[in-house]
């Protein structure tokens, strides 16, 4: 049974056209500090492929340990996503928003001192837990403050921050590796710098009014909304009159089962090919005959940043579905071409890889938008956390299995498997992806079925 809260008179919704200076400043800062967490996530994942050869030589890694260390942060995210989301739904967004970064600081510093494979694996799992929690705390927090007409763009900026973190980490690691200026301990430990900066900037972030409302703390919610939210969102907040059932089970209720399936499959089919290829970009490109695998991987990541910028610019113009669905089918064709033309010229291979990297990034940007929109406040954290965890199953498996598949079956088989995953993502998205452009949060997160079993209006 849902717990009824005191009735609040509904207010007419007005579509405002411009942010006030105060609200613009607040949203800019909030987007920045949440983007910082995404930047850090990309940063710790971007350099692992660069330093893997050095780690392998120094710690005498087997192929299995290479895969485990490459996937370690992803395994941690699998744990941290649901855990952080559940805590954010129960105790609030604000306290968890800084705790997770504090944990990450500890893990970043510890990377300077690891001496064994299991130590490195354990430290990066811990860091992954903190990042997974940050997904399921930060995305709901931004979605719950952002105005409807800007929500998609602001959430998409978070993914841009991830790609920038990945690219910068890859570029710094590439430069330090080629010049032999620093060892792998230092390259991995550089994540300490942005983590400390973001941690300090997050201090003083307010609680989400929507979360406060879901807990029955109406006066606090209204006061914070008046200070930090535009009129449309304040009006929409007043429609949140009941505290629905919390917890993991509601994700699989009749109201949200299709939403959960869509978000999870959409995410896993986007990131699995990217992580499998991106984490081992130098190895993949060299096995395809490109001698400059490291530099090719750098350009590949730069193209991904361009794709994310395209998504940020157009998401509120063309809508979600047009950016989410076509890239899957284009990626499928590009990866099949790589598999079938692996012995062709390096130019053709690079064009196919760059095409995949560009369109995959466009679609993957939506993985930072949909999860924060389509779940209601009381399960938004656990919803994002579950989707995060599910996506990391595929990403971790792809990262772990890619070197094994290449070794056993060859590069063409690995690329065909990646193409198959992209094809599944395109079909599922075509059937289930909603269009949420310009809609208020109460509209896009409304249950798909009423308690009587009918579709919700």
From TrEMBL:
According to Swiss-Prot or TrEMBL, what is its membrane topology?
Multi-pass membrane protein
Quote a single Gene Ontology cellular component term.
membrane
Q: Which UniProt keywords apply?
A: Membrane, Transmembrane, Transmembrane helix
Q: What is its main location?
A: membrane
GO terms (molecular function) for this protein are: carbohydrate:proton symporter activity
Q: State its location(s).
A: Membrane
Ranges for domain Major facilitator superfamily (MFS) profile come to 30-437
Q: Enumerate the transmembrane spans.
A: 30-51, 63-84, 96-114, 120-142, 154-176, 182-203, 260-285, 297-316, 323-342, 348-370, 382-402, 408-433
What InterPro entries would the database entry show? MFS_dom, MFS_sugar_transport-like, MFS_Sugar_Transporters, MFS_trans_sf, Sugar_transporter_CS
Q: Which Pfam families match?
A: Sugar_tr
Q: Which family does it belong to?
A: Belongs to the major facilitator superfamily. Sugar transporter (TC 2.A.1.1) family.
Listed name of the protein: MFS transporter
Q: Which organism is it from?
A: Pandoraea terrae
